[in-house]
Design goal:
single chain, alpha/beta, Urease, subunit C, domain 1, 2 domains, eight-stranded mixed β-sheet, 21% strand
């Protein structure tokens, strides 16, 4: 966001002025998040080729102005003839930065404060505060190796787009972000309201129930900075029909973007696939014929394979047997999708807080479900890198350590192709050619 004068700043809405001022304050306290790239020569002892699932030994990665300029065998003595700085990762496993394609940076559900009910969270926490929570979460995710994320809403009144702008302009550190803005849904969204207080679900959700409302909701979201459109298909007794979803798809396509569809039920997934959405979010109850329809249509599955604890912490129900059954449904759907060749990517949907844990450490727990489903480590890595890049429309830009791609690079002591738990020990993070983390030093 750019303002040519103080008058321009003062003419924006009070909410936006508060968000921007708050983010500037955080930037001052946390230190600069400069986007200036460094020219580097990296000696990668073990370069993980996530596309093939193999290791290239003793490689040289040359980074110029934030872009990878060369990848090839290490050349002894060549560093002295160049001006770039050497980063010696000869004892490290090196791979592209990680992606989380289903995040909520500006939503923190805390059972001590809100009873684990994010409806209550949305009432207690205003957008400026949530944007500052997003700053903390985004910085933590970047430090853990997540260099690209897709924020799928639940950010109040466009807290996600404000956070994205702050990161892009270098005010605060964080991953590259694609944002959805306000989630669009039938009346009520994912909340259950009462007639005397029917407005309490907004602005968390943008209600759209007629063709005119659908077009307006898409256009308004894009106007305020959304990169794609997220809709809730089926969290009420009434769900979006194929024709209604198709209106969303057509309106988004005209603007050069796509529809991400929250689907929890089988019928919701069927409607979304038939209407031509780009991705299904969640989709735990998709039988094989629905998965086959998704594969044939090229619809991505962003599965958010919750652990038992994640389901227990994120939702208000306390029936452990029901929670365990739902977890098994997620794991089984992932297992079947993998076997059928359905395109899927890693998405965490972590929104809850837990003492002693960070947003990133909780994000890695989703890989427990991948391991339980029998997904090989190489396929887990692709779901977190190259496949995620393709789903987000970033193929050729991010997701590989390859000449001409952005220099988003991470490193760790152990081989993630043996066990993706190695990712939890990432201690080197480079984003857009800038060294953000090295060992215990962050943000320099």
């Amino acid at each position: 966001m750019h303002f040519d004068s103080m008058h321009d700043f003062q003419s924006t809405s009070p909410v936006y002025r508060t968000i921007i001022t708050s983010l500037l304050l955080v930037a001052v306290l946390a230190g600069p998040g400069s986007t200036v790239a460094q020219d580097l020569v990296i000696r990668a002892g073990h370069l993980v080729d996530v596309e093939s699932g193999s290791i290239l030994e003793d490689q040289e990665i040359v980074v110029r102005e934030g872009i990878i300029d060369r990848v090839g065998p290490w050349r002894d003595g060549a560093v002295g003839a160049r001006e770039e700085s050497l980063l010696d990762l000869s004892e490290r496993y090196v791979l592209p930065g990680l992606f989380d394609t289903h995040t909520h940076m500006s939503l923190v559900v805390d059972r001590k404060k809100d009873g684990g009910n994010f409806f209550v969270t949305s009432l207690l926490d205003n957008t400026p505060y949530r944007a500052i929570q997003g700053v903390a979460n985004a910085r933590d995710m970047l430090a853990a190796g997540f260099t690209t994320i897709r924020d799928v809403g639940n950010s109040g009144n466009y807290g996600d787009t404000a956070l994205k702008t702050a990161i892009t302009e270098g005010l605060v550190p964080g991953p590259t972000m694609h944002t959805a803005g306000r989630i669009i849904a039938p009346f009520g969204g994912q909340f259950f309201l009462q007639p005397e207080k029917r407005a309490l679900g907004e602005p968390e959700y943008f209600y759209a129930d007629t063709p005119g409302e659908i077009r307006k909701a898409v256009r308004e979201n894009l106007h305020f900075g959304a990169d794609f459109i997220k809709i809730v298909v089926d969290d009420q007794r009434y769900i979006y029909s194929v024709d209604e979803i198709r209106l969303f798809v057509e309106e988004a396509r005209r603007a050069g973007t796509y529809i991400s569809a929250h689907c929890w039920t089988e019928q919701g997934a069927r409607n979304a696939i038939a209407a031509g959405v780009h991705s299904i979010e969640h989709g735990p109850y998709m039988p094989n014929d629905v998965l086959e329809d998704a594969r044939k249509a090229g619809v991505w599955i962003v599965g958010t394979e919750f652990t038992v604890e994640g389901l227990a912490q994120s939702f208000t129900g306390d029936d452990l047997s029901a929670i365990e059954a739902e977890h098994e449904a997620f794991v089984d759907r992932l297992r079947r999708a993998h076997a059928l060749g359905v395109p899927y990517v890693f998405g965490s949907d972590i929104v809850y807080a837990k003492e002693g844990e960070t947003r990133s450490s909780l994000t890695f727990t989703i890989l427990d479900s991948f391991r339980k489903a029998g997904i090989p480590p190489a396929d887990q890595l692709r779901a977190m890198t190259l496949s995620a890049s393709r789903m987000m429309g970033l193929d050729g830009q991010r997701g590989l350590v390859k000449t001409g791609w952005a220099a988003d690079i991470v490193a760790m002591p152990a081989n993630p192709l043996d066990d993706t738990r190695a990712l939890e020990a990432i201690d080197v993070v480079i984003k857009d050619g800038r060294l953000f983390r090295h060992a215990d030093r962050i943000g320099y």
